[in-house]
Amino acid sequence: MEKSKLQRFRNWFIGLLLFSGLIVAVTHFGEIGNFVRLMRQVQPVWLVLALFFQTATYFSVAAVWHQALRNVGMRYSLLSLVPLGIAKLFSDQAMPSGGMSGTAFIVTALNRRGISHQSCMAMLLVSLVAYYAAYLMVAASSIMILGFYHAITPWIIIVTIVFCLVAVATPAGALWLQRRGKKELPKLLLRIPGLTSLLRAFGNAPGDLIRNHSLVIIMTLLHGSVFLLDSATLWVMLNAVGQRVSFWVAYPSFALASIVATIGPIPLGLGTFEAACVAMLRILGIPIEAALAATLLLRGFTLWLPMLPGFWLTKRELH
User: Domain count of the chain?
Assistant: First the structure.
Protein backbone atom coordinates (compact mmCIF):
# COMPACT_ATOMS: atom_id res chain seq x y z
CA MET A 1 0.00 0.00 0.00
CA GLU A 2 2.80 2.44 0.93
CA LYS A 3 4.63 1.57 -2.28
CA SER A 4 1.46 2.30 -4.28
CA LYS A 5 1.03 5.68 -2.57
CA LEU A 6 4.68 6.52 -3.20
CA GLN A 7 4.27 5.62 -6.87
CA ARG A 8 1.20 7.87 -7.21
CA PHE A 9 3.01 10.73 -5.46
CA ARG A 10 5.99 10.30 -7.77
CA ASN A 11 3.76 10.34 -10.86
CA TRP A 12 2.03 13.52 -9.67
CA PHE A 13 5.39 15.12 -8.93
CA ILE A 14 6.74 14.26 -12.38
CA GLY A 15 3.59 15.66 -13.96
CA LEU A 16 3.91 18.93 -12.07
CA LEU A 17 7.59 19.16 -13.06
CA LEU A 18 6.71 18.64 -16.73
CA PHE A 19 3.95 21.22 -16.56
CA SER A 20 6.21 23.74 -14.80
CA GLY A 21 8.99 23.02 -17.27
CA LEU A 22 6.64 23.70 -20.16
CA ILE A 23 5.64 27.09 -18.73
CA VAL A 24 9.31 28.01 -18.17
CA ALA A 25 10.23 26.92 -21.70
CA VAL A 26 7.47 28.98 -23.28
CA THR A 27 8.37 32.07 -21.28
CA HIS A 28 12.02 31.55 -22.25
CA PHE A 29 11.54 31.00 -25.98
CA GLY A 30 8.47 33.18 -26.35
CA GLU A 31 7.27 36.52 -25.04
CA ILE A 32 5.25 36.41 -21.82
CA GLY A 33 3.63 39.68 -22.83
CA ASN A 34 2.29 38.09 -26.02
CA PHE A 35 0.90 35.19 -24.01
CA VAL A 36 -0.94 37.53 -21.63
CA ARG A 37 -2.26 39.58 -24.55
CA LEU A 38 -3.57 36.47 -26.29
CA MET A 39 -5.41 35.32 -23.17
CA ARG A 40 -6.98 38.74 -22.70
CA GLN A 41 -8.27 38.97 -26.27
CA VAL A 42 -10.40 35.79 -26.03
CA GLN A 43 -14.00 36.65 -26.87
CA PRO A 44 -16.92 34.98 -25.04
CA VAL A 45 -18.45 33.67 -28.28
CA TRP A 46 -15.52 31.27 -28.70
CA LEU A 47 -15.92 30.01 -25.13
CA VAL A 48 -19.64 29.39 -25.70
CA LEU A 49 -18.84 27.41 -28.84
CA ALA A 50 -16.23 25.37 -26.93
CA LEU A 51 -18.80 24.66 -24.20
CA PHE A 52 -21.22 23.42 -26.87
CA PHE A 53 -18.65 20.99 -28.29
CA GLN A 54 -17.74 19.69 -24.84
CA THR A 55 -21.39 19.19 -23.90
CA ALA A 56 -21.76 17.19 -27.11
CA THR A 57 -18.95 14.84 -25.99
CA TYR A 58 -20.97 13.89 -22.90
CA PHE A 59 -23.96 13.06 -25.08
CA SER A 60 -21.75 11.00 -27.42
CA VAL A 61 -20.45 8.90 -24.51
CA ALA A 62 -23.99 8.52 -23.17
CA ALA A 63 -25.12 7.41 -26.65
CA VAL A 64 -22.49 4.63 -26.63
CA TRP A 65 -24.02 3.07 -23.54
CA HIS A 66 -27.55 3.87 -24.67
CA GLN A 67 -26.93 1.71 -27.74
CA ALA A 68 -25.34 -1.07 -25.69
CA LEU A 69 -28.18 -1.10 -23.13
CA ARG A 70 -30.82 -1.19 -25.85
CA ASN A 71 -29.16 -4.27 -27.33
CA VAL A 72 -29.35 -6.12 -24.01
CA GLY A 73 -33.03 -5.26 -23.67
CA MET A 74 -32.73 -2.36 -21.20
CA ARG A 75 -34.48 0.95 -21.86
CA TYR A 76 -32.83 4.07 -20.47
CA SER A 77 -33.33 7.58 -21.80
CA LEU A 78 -30.26 9.17 -23.36
CA LEU A 79 -30.53 12.16 -21.02
CA SER A 80 -30.42 9.94 -17.92
CA LEU A 81 -27.09 8.51 -19.06
CA VAL A 82 -25.37 11.89 -19.61
CA PRO A 83 -24.18 12.12 -15.94
CA LEU A 84 -22.51 8.75 -16.44
CA GLY A 85 -20.83 10.14 -19.55
CA ILE A 86 -19.41 13.04 -17.55
CA ALA A 87 -18.18 10.70 -14.82
CA LYS A 88 -16.63 8.32 -17.38
CA LEU A 89 -14.63 11.07 -19.07
CA PHE A 90 -13.49 12.25 -15.64
CA SER A 91 -12.39 8.72 -14.71
CA ASP A 92 -10.47 8.36 -17.98
CA GLN A 93 -8.63 11.61 -17.29
CA ALA A 94 -7.97 11.04 -13.60
CA MET A 95 -6.66 7.48 -13.96
CA PRO A 96 -4.84 7.08 -17.28
CA SER A 97 -5.47 3.52 -18.45
CA GLY A 98 -6.38 3.80 -22.09
CA GLY A 99 -10.09 4.22 -21.42
CA MET A 100 -10.29 1.16 -19.16
CA SER A 101 -10.85 3.10 -15.92
CA GLY A 102 -13.86 5.01 -17.25
CA THR A 103 -15.34 1.93 -18.90
CA ALA A 104 -14.92 -0.09 -15.71
CA PHE A 105 -16.62 2.72 -13.78
CA ILE A 106 -19.69 2.68 -16.05
CA VAL A 107 -19.92 -1.11 -15.82
CA THR A 108 -19.87 -0.84 -12.01
CA ALA A 109 -22.48 1.92 -12.10
CA LEU A 110 -24.79 -0.07 -14.38
CA ASN A 111 -24.32 -3.18 -12.25
CA ARG A 112 -25.47 -1.16 -9.23
CA ARG A 113 -28.57 -0.16 -11.21
CA GLY A 114 -29.62 -3.78 -11.56
CA ILE A 115 -28.01 -4.72 -14.90
CA SER A 116 -26.71 -8.29 -14.70
CA HIS A 117 -22.96 -8.80 -14.38
CA GLN A 118 -22.89 -10.88 -17.56
CA SER A 119 -24.60 -8.12 -19.55
CA CYS A 120 -22.26 -5.51 -18.06
CA MET A 121 -19.18 -7.51 -19.08
CA ALA A 122 -20.60 -8.02 -22.57
CA MET A 123 -21.09 -4.26 -22.88
CA LEU A 124 -17.60 -3.62 -21.52
CA LEU A 125 -16.13 -5.94 -24.13
CA VAL A 126 -17.90 -4.40 -27.10
CA SER A 127 -17.19 -0.86 -25.86
CA LEU A 128 -13.52 -1.70 -25.39
CA VAL A 129 -13.22 -3.05 -28.94
CA ALA A 130 -15.11 -0.06 -30.38
CA TYR A 131 -13.09 2.46 -28.36
CA TYR A 132 -9.73 1.15 -29.53
CA ALA A 133 -10.96 0.73 -33.10
CA ALA A 134 -11.92 4.42 -33.09
CA TYR A 135 -8.65 5.41 -31.41
CA LEU A 136 -6.61 3.48 -34.00
CA MET A 137 -8.48 5.18 -36.84
CA VAL A 138 -7.82 8.56 -35.22
CA ALA A 139 -4.12 7.73 -34.87
CA ALA A 140 -3.84 6.48 -38.46
CA SER A 141 -5.66 9.48 -39.94
CA SER A 142 -3.52 11.85 -37.86
CA ILE A 143 -0.32 10.32 -39.22
CA MET A 144 -1.69 10.70 -42.76
CA ILE A 145 -2.47 14.37 -42.13
CA LEU A 146 0.96 14.98 -40.60
CA GLY A 147 2.52 13.28 -43.62
CA PHE A 148 0.64 15.72 -45.86
CA TYR A 149 2.11 18.59 -43.81
CA HIS A 150 5.59 16.93 -43.87
CA ALA A 151 5.51 17.13 -40.08
CA ILE A 152 6.37 13.58 -39.03
CA THR A 153 9.31 13.37 -36.62
CA PRO A 154 11.02 10.32 -35.03
CA TRP A 155 9.34 10.85 -31.64
CA ILE A 156 5.92 10.91 -33.30
CA ILE A 157 6.64 7.59 -35.01
CA ILE A 158 7.89 5.97 -31.80
CA VAL A 159 4.95 7.16 -29.72
CA THR A 160 2.45 6.05 -32.37
CA ILE A 161 4.01 2.58 -32.68
CA VAL A 162 3.93 2.07 -28.90
CA PHE A 163 0.32 3.21 -28.78
CA CYS A 164 -0.71 0.93 -31.68
CA LEU A 165 0.79 -2.07 -29.89
CA VAL A 166 -1.23 -1.22 -26.76
CA ALA A 167 -4.37 -0.45 -28.77
CA VAL A 168 -4.24 -3.80 -30.56
CA ALA A 169 -3.12 -5.92 -27.60
CA THR A 170 -5.74 -4.66 -25.11
CA PRO A 171 -8.95 -5.51 -26.99
CA ALA A 172 -7.33 -8.60 -28.55
CA GLY A 173 -6.48 -9.87 -25.07
CA ALA A 174 -10.02 -9.17 -23.85
CA LEU A 175 -11.51 -11.03 -26.83
CA TRP A 176 -9.14 -13.94 -26.26
CA LEU A 177 -10.21 -14.18 -22.62
CA GLN A 178 -13.88 -14.07 -23.59
CA ARG A 179 -13.54 -16.80 -26.24
CA ARG A 180 -11.36 -18.96 -24.01
CA GLY A 181 -14.10 -19.01 -21.42
CA LYS A 182 -13.32 -21.14 -18.39
CA LYS A 183 -10.48 -23.11 -19.94
CA GLU A 184 -7.36 -23.30 -17.82
CA LEU A 185 -4.71 -20.65 -18.48
CA PRO A 186 -0.98 -21.37 -18.72
CA LYS A 187 0.63 -21.23 -15.26
CA LEU A 188 2.81 -18.28 -16.31
CA LEU A 189 -0.25 -16.13 -17.03
CA LEU A 190 -1.91 -17.13 -13.78
CA ARG A 191 0.89 -15.35 -11.93
CA ILE A 192 -0.27 -12.00 -13.33
CA PRO A 193 -2.18 -10.13 -10.56
CA GLY A 194 -5.90 -9.87 -11.24
CA LEU A 195 -5.86 -11.96 -14.43
CA THR A 196 -7.79 -14.87 -12.91
CA SER A 197 -10.71 -12.64 -11.87
CA LEU A 198 -10.62 -10.88 -15.25
CA LEU A 199 -10.72 -14.24 -17.01
CA ARG A 200 -13.71 -15.31 -14.96
CA ALA A 201 -15.52 -12.07 -15.72
CA PHE A 202 -14.91 -12.13 -19.48
CA GLY A 203 -15.40 -15.89 -19.65
CA ASN A 204 -18.96 -15.47 -18.37
CA ALA A 205 -19.74 -12.64 -20.80
CA PRO A 206 -22.19 -13.63 -23.56
CA GLY A 207 -20.83 -13.17 -27.07
CA ASP A 208 -24.00 -11.84 -28.71
CA LEU A 209 -23.03 -8.16 -28.53
CA ILE A 210 -19.52 -8.52 -29.92
CA ARG A 211 -20.96 -10.48 -32.88
CA ASN A 212 -23.43 -7.66 -33.58
CA HIS A 213 -21.38 -5.91 -36.26
CA SER A 214 -23.78 -3.01 -36.72
CA LEU A 215 -23.59 -2.25 -32.97
CA VAL A 216 -19.79 -2.35 -33.03
CA ILE A 217 -19.73 0.05 -36.00
CA ILE A 218 -22.19 2.48 -34.37
CA MET A 219 -20.27 2.46 -31.08
CA THR A 220 -16.97 2.95 -32.93
CA LEU A 221 -18.39 6.00 -34.71
CA LEU A 222 -19.72 7.39 -31.43
CA HIS A 223 -16.35 6.94 -29.71
CA GLY A 224 -14.71 8.56 -32.72
CA SER A 225 -17.05 11.53 -32.48
CA VAL A 226 -15.63 12.31 -29.02
CA PHE A 227 -12.16 12.72 -30.53
CA LEU A 228 -13.56 14.93 -33.28
CA LEU A 229 -15.45 17.11 -30.80
CA ASP A 230 -12.39 17.51 -28.55
CA SER A 231 -10.30 18.38 -31.61
CA ALA A 232 -12.96 20.91 -32.60
CA THR A 233 -12.64 22.42 -29.12
CA LEU A 234 -8.89 22.86 -29.66
CA TRP A 235 -9.59 24.42 -33.07
CA VAL A 236 -12.01 26.86 -31.40
CA MET A 237 -9.37 27.78 -28.83
CA LEU A 238 -6.80 28.42 -31.54
CA ASN A 239 -9.25 30.78 -33.21
CA ALA A 240 -9.97 32.38 -29.84
CA VAL A 241 -6.30 33.38 -29.52
CA GLY A 242 -6.17 34.76 -33.04
CA GLN A 243 -4.90 31.74 -35.00
CA ARG A 244 -7.10 31.31 -38.08
CA VAL A 245 -6.00 27.80 -38.95
CA SER A 246 -7.57 24.71 -40.47
CA PHE A 247 -9.30 22.11 -38.31
CA TRP A 248 -6.71 19.67 -39.69
CA VAL A 249 -4.04 21.44 -37.66
CA ALA A 250 -5.96 20.95 -34.41
CA TYR A 251 -7.02 17.35 -35.10
CA PRO A 252 -3.59 15.63 -35.25
CA SER A 253 -2.27 17.87 -32.49
CA PHE A 254 -5.01 16.78 -30.13
CA ALA A 255 -4.73 13.15 -31.22
CA LEU A 256 -0.97 12.90 -30.62
CA ALA A 257 -1.24 14.71 -27.29
CA SER A 258 -3.98 12.29 -26.22
CA ILE A 259 -1.85 9.31 -27.26
CA VAL A 260 1.09 10.59 -25.20
CA ALA A 261 -1.19 11.09 -22.18
CA THR A 262 -2.78 7.65 -22.69
CA ILE A 263 0.43 5.62 -22.73
CA GLY A 264 2.01 7.68 -19.95
CA PRO A 265 1.55 6.96 -16.23
CA ILE A 266 0.97 10.59 -15.16
CA PRO A 267 -2.48 11.24 -13.58
CA LEU A 268 -4.66 13.59 -15.63
CA GLY A 269 -1.95 13.54 -18.31
CA LEU A 270 -0.64 16.55 -16.38
CA GLY A 271 2.32 18.02 -18.21
CA THR A 272 2.52 15.24 -20.79
CA PHE A 273 -0.63 16.26 -22.66
CA GLU A 274 0.21 19.97 -22.55
CA ALA A 275 3.82 19.46 -23.65
CA ALA A 276 2.85 17.15 -26.53
CA CYS A 277 0.02 19.43 -27.69
CA VAL A 278 2.19 22.54 -27.66
CA ALA A 279 4.98 20.64 -29.46
CA MET A 280 2.59 19.42 -32.18
CA LEU A 281 1.07 22.85 -32.71
CA ARG A 282 4.54 24.36 -32.88
CA ILE A 283 5.59 21.78 -35.50
CA LEU A 284 2.53 22.78 -37.53
CA GLY A 285 3.50 26.44 -37.47
CA ILE A 286 1.59 27.88 -34.51
CA PRO A 287 3.57 30.45 -32.45
CA ILE A 288 4.58 28.96 -29.12
CA GLU A 289 2.68 31.53 -27.02
CA ALA A 290 -0.54 30.88 -28.99
CA ALA A 291 0.01 27.12 -28.80
CA LEU A 292 0.29 27.25 -25.01
CA ALA A 293 -2.67 29.61 -24.61
CA ALA A 294 -4.92 27.41 -26.78
CA THR A 295 -3.79 24.24 -24.99
CA LEU A 296 -4.44 25.68 -21.54
CA LEU A 297 -7.88 26.90 -22.61
CA LEU A 298 -8.63 23.47 -24.04
CA ARG A 299 -7.60 21.74 -20.82
CA GLY A 300 -9.73 24.16 -18.87
CA PHE A 301 -12.82 22.92 -20.73
CA THR A 302 -11.92 19.23 -21.12
CA LEU A 303 -10.36 18.61 -17.71
CA TRP A 304 -10.59 21.31 -15.05
CA LEU A 305 -14.14 22.59 -15.67
CA PRO A 306 -15.79 19.14 -15.42
CA MET A 307 -13.45 18.06 -12.59
CA LEU A 308 -15.78 18.91 -9.69
CA PRO A 309 -19.04 17.56 -11.19
CA GLY A 310 -17.14 14.53 -12.53
CA PHE A 311 -15.69 13.76 -9.10
CA TRP A 312 -19.07 14.24 -7.40
CA LEU A 313 -20.92 12.07 -9.94
CA THR A 314 -18.28 9.33 -9.73
CA LYS A 315 -18.44 9.31 -5.95
CA ARG A 316 -22.26 9.27 -6.00
CA GLU A 317 -22.40 6.30 -8.37
CA LEU A 318 -19.81 4.24 -6.48
CA HIS A 319 -21.18 4.78 -2.96
Answer: 1
